[in-house]
């Protein structure tokens, strides 16, 4: 230190005093040259030492930033060969932009029955469950935005743009990521974790439309406005418990205009692997909610369309199971997926016949119904990018006790059912084209042959699919 | 009924409160990092490897078993560079384990310690399954393993300070043995320099750069896009102008396309282990490169 300090001092002095240097003798000059040489050697040695230290740091560092600086170390590297580290690419105000993706969909439909008269015989109409329009139609376009909010929260917004140019919020929730201990609290609007298919978005389904049990018992899909708490047990076997409290506005419940909680959901899911080739998941779920004046139109014993309404409690239990097979766990070439869900529903309360008194026989009576249904489906990828699938749906109208309304309404006995086959082509993770044919017997004596062509395109951020 | 409930609660509570195990629990996304942690940690670590060598690392599902294992992990060792983008974020999100989230010491990404090759100049899915940060298959060059080993050992020591000395000494022993092994592989692989080859998927960029092979063509028309007959025809035409010695594929890939081209172009079809466990000989990291070089030398004959 001190040597180089004095040497640099001498050098500076020599440079600043040209007159003195000019007057200096040859011996002085030689002395200065010698000092300069020493200085040079000194700095060269220090630079070498620094380079050595940099190399060591490069090998030992645990900081990505240090590794990012390393490629810049050899100065003569040509620009094209010097790769930019990933960490250096995100910069500016755009660096915090959330992940954005969009799903574009459309179908061509051919129905032998009028899709506007779509109904499940013996089951209360549950909202927008029609299979779609005849001919060409645009499906729901989906826009998803997600990112970490801060060090504690993660946010996700998924809006659906309908072909009728309306906008609906499918999911908009915050997730508390800092809880730990396997806890994952979620709040906002989200698809309930009950069953298997419920929390999967429509564009990842294996068929164009939802299973009949979802249509009959949940109006397609059960969305919760409320809070969710999931707890993952600390075991090697996947064991997850979940609970949800919500507004209860979605079918089978109705808007209740009251303080407190409108719906409660509890479920348990478990799953694991069997060898490298098999994985599975199974679950049990329970939903309890209330309906108030759940009104709809029903054909009575005389063939009249009567306004009827139900008020009371609705309880639903779901058992779900999915098994996936891929040779050695490699699903790329061939794989198989088997999935089944069974739904039971029990409703108790008051049932009013002829609510608008248009038939002049308004009557309210006690009501009790136990109904159930299931679907089972298998999808087989027989070669890369190509899959075939088959699905069978069956609804059991069960035992409906109309009380004194039995004078006007007939106990349903018809079992709606549907058989579906599909073939799809998935040229990449981001596009899928599907052909689907279904024979649906949903009303007594009426068979609907439904044919679909569907496309699904995903663009933007690379999403991850749920199991 | 009540006593059953109490019993269940007690079991669950016990499971929650008791530490899962004294050893550091490591979740490795791919076999090479599982094997490296094994070298560095020995019996001080409990390793779960999420995928096997016969699985396509690009297409893994967020299976229940993976979520359950990520829940109890002290350290997640991933490749990064978007290799696991289709499943790991979902697994980590559902695991309810803040220790192993990206940015935390419990999350280790190998790609940040290696200079990645083939960084695309243009990001467009029209170019296939491109990785914005560069080619993530960095484990096919043993020098990259060495680059990852040092920070990984430091991370193990950071998370498990009690055994820091063990990790440090195991790292030293590994680094010495590994450096010697690389020198040996370099010598063995000398005849491979400049040998023209065809690859099925762009999975061997780092191997090719290390050994000095010459990539003439790729069977996939775009990364991650299945080979088409028309593209294979073009590759065949290319091979008639610029002949290659062999066609390489990773053990996890289907052999149809490479067999097709091997038969018609009359070249050798070589299956490389790609990672630990990809072939019977690739039992550990040393076996991985011993076998890779041996298979390449055989194919080049």
Question: What does this 3D model show about the protein?
Answer:
The complex is a heterodimer of chains A (467) and B (301). Chain A is built from five helices and 17 strands. Chain A is mainly β and 467 residues long. Chain A has two domains: 2-74, no CATH class; 99-460, Porin, CATH 2.40.160. Chain A is elongated. With 301 residues, chain B is of the alpha/beta class. In chain B, 44% of the residues lie in helices and 12% in strands. Chain B has helices at 2-17, 31-41, 64-71, 88-95, 142-159, 164-188, 205-211, 229-241, 256-265, 285-300; strands at 24-28, 45-49, 75-78, 107-109, 196-199, 214-218, 246-250, 268-272. A four-stranded parallel sheet of chain B has the order 2-1-3-4, covered by helices on one side. In chain B, strands 6-5-7-8 form a four-stranded parallel sheet, sandwiched between helices. Chain B is globular. The model of chain B has no long low-confidence stretch (mean pLDDT 92). At the A-B interface, helix 4, strand 7, strand 8, strand 9 and strand 10 of A face helix 1, helix 3, helix 4 and helix 5 of B.
Summarize the structure.
Chain A is mainly beta and 467 residues long.
Largest contact between chains: A-B, 64 and 64 residues
Biggest beta-sheet profile of chain B: 4 strands, parallel
CATH architecture of the largest domain in chain B: 3-Layer(aba) Sandwich
CATH H-level homologous superfamily name of the largest domain in chain B: Nitrogenase molybdenum iron protein domain
Taken as a percent bin, the fraction of beta residues of chain B is 5-15%
How would you characterize the largest beta sheet of chain A?
16 strands, antiparallel, barrel
Number of helices of chain A: 5
CATH level-3 fold name of the largest domain in chain B:
Rossmann fold
* CATH class label of the largest domain in chain B: Alpha Beta
């Amino acid at each position: 230190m001190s040597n180089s300090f004095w040497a640099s001092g001498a050098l500076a002095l020599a440079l600043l005093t040209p007159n003195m240097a000019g007057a200096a003798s040859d011996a002085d000059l030689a002395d200065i040259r010698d000092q300069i040489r020493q200085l040079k050697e000194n700095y060269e040695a220090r630079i070498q030492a620094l380079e050595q230290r940099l190399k060591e740091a490069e090998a030992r560092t645990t900081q990505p930033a240090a590794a990012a600086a390393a490629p810049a170390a050899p100065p003569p590297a040509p620009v094209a060969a010097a790769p930019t580290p990933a960490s250096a690419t995100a910069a500016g105000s755009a660096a915090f932009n959330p992940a954005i993706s969009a799903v574009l969909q459309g179908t061509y439909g051919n129905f032998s029955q009028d899709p506007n008269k779509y109904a499940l015989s013996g089951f209360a109409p549950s909202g927008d469950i029609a299979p779609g329009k005849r001919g060409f139609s645009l499906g729901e376009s989906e826009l998803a935005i997600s990112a970490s909010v801060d060090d504690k929260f993660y946010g996700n917004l998924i809006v659906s743009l309908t072909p009728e140019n309306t906008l609906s919020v499918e999911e908009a929730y915050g997730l508390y990521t800092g809880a730990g201990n396997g806890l994952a609290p979620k709040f906002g609007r989200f698809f309930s974790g009950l069953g298997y298919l419920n929390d999967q978005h429509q564009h990842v389904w294996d068929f164009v439309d939802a299973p009949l049990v979802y249509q009959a018992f949940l109006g397609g899909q059960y969305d919760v406005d409320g809070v969710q708490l999931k707890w993952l047990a600390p075991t090697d076997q996947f064991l997850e418990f979940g609970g949800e409290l919500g507004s209860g506005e979605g079918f089978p419940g109705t808007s209740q205009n009251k303080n407190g909680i409108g719906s409660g959901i509890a479920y348990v899911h478990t799953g694991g692997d069997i060898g490298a080739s098999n994985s599975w998941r199974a679950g049990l779920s329970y939903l309890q909610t209330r309906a108030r004046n759940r009104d709809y139109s029903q054909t009575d014993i005389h063939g009249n369309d009567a306004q009827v309404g139900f008020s009371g409690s609705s309880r639903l239990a779901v058992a779900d199971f999915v098994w996936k097979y891929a040779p050695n766990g490699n699903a790329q070439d061939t794989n198989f997926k088997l999935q089944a869900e069974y739904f039971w529903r029990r409703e108790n309360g008051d049932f009013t016949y002829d609510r608008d008194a248009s038939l002049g026989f308004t009557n309210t009576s006690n009501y009790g119904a136990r109904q159930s249904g299931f679907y089972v489906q298998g999808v087989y990828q027989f070669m890369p990018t190509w899959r075939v699938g088959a699905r069978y749906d069956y609804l059991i109208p069960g035992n409906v006790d109309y009380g004194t309304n039995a004078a006007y309404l007939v106990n349903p006995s018809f079992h709606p059912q549907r058989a579906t086959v599909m073939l799809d082509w998935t040229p990449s993770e981001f596009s899928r084209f599907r052909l689907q044919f279904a024979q649906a017997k949903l009303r007594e004596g009426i068979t609907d042959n439904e044919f679909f062509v569907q496309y699904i395109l995903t663009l933007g951020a690379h999403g991850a699919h749920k199991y | 009924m009540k006593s059953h409930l109490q019993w269940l609660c007690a079991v669950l509570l016990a499971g929650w409160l008791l530490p899962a195990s004294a050893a550091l629990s490591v979740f490795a996304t791919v076999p090479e990092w599982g094997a490296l942690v094994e070298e560095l940690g020995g019996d001080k670590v409990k390793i779960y490897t999420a995928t096997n060598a016969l699985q396509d690392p690009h297409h893994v599902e967020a299976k229940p078993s993976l979520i359950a294992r990520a829940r109890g992990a002290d350290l997640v060792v991933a490749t990064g560079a978007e290799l696991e983008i289709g499943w790991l974020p979902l697994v980590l999100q559902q695991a309810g384990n803040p220790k192993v989230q990206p940015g935390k010491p419990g999350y280790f990404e190998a790609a940040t310690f290696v200079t990645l090759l083939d960084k695309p100049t243009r990001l467009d899915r029209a170019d296939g399954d491109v990785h914005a940060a560069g080619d993530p298959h960095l484990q096919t060059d043993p020098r990259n393993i060495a680059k990852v080993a040092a920070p990984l050992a430091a991370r193990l020591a950071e998370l498990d300070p009690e055994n820091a000395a063990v990790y440090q000494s195991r790292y030293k022993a590994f680094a010495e043995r590994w450096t010697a092994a690389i020198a040996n592989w370099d010598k063995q692989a000398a005849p491979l320099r400049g040998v023209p080859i065809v690859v099925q998927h762009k999975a061997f960029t780092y191997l090719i750069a290390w050994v000095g092979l010459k990539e003439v063509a790729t069977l996939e028309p775009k990364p991650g896009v299945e080979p088409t007959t028309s593209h294979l025809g073009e590759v065949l035409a290319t091979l008639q102008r610029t002949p290659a010695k062999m066609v390489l594929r990773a053990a996890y890939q289907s052999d149809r396309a490479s067999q097709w081209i091997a038969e018609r172009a009359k070249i050798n079809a070589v299956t490389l282990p790609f990672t630990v466990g990809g072939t019977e000989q690739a039992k550990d990291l040393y076996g991985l490169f011993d076998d890779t070089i041996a298979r390449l030398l055989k194919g080049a004959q």
